[in-house]
């Protein structure tokens, strides 16, 4: 269902001898509402710390604690609005849900809150691009009737 993705500009960190790529993330939305957090945490400093990394080695997105906590809180609120049943956290996941009341969509899997990653425009472009993450792409099924938000708390100093 990721056909909604048109183009994602990647930022290479070859200067820092890394095989990872970063995206120029501006904001995160859950069901169309901006998640409130310190957006300066999305910037990459001269020591290659910070930013939003894309990894082919890590199966889940690892976020700075401040970003993760805000995202998990907003996602859970929207999930409860959809009558999803929350469960106690179970490491490494924080936002955990019972699938009992979760409908299944034809194309995207579970009908959970939709997330949009807003990326800054490329070069001189002032227009932003959105990367929509919905359904099965945002969740991790850990048991038959249990799924979790597929993002992890990387602590206050996540390694980039």
Automatic annotation (TrEMBL):
GO molecular function, a single term: aspartic-type endopeptidase activity
Organism: Citrus sinensis
Record GO biological process: proteolysis
InterPro entries assigned to the protein according to its UniProt record, in alphabetical order: Aspartic_peptidase_A1, Peptidase_aspartic_dom_sf, TAXi_C
Record-linked PANTHER family: ASPARTYL PROTEASE-RELATED, EUKARYOTIC ASPARTYL PROTEASE FAMILY PROTEIN
Xylanase inhibitor C-terminal domain ranges (all copies): 20-157
Listed name of the protein: Xylanase inhibitor C-terminal domain-containing protein
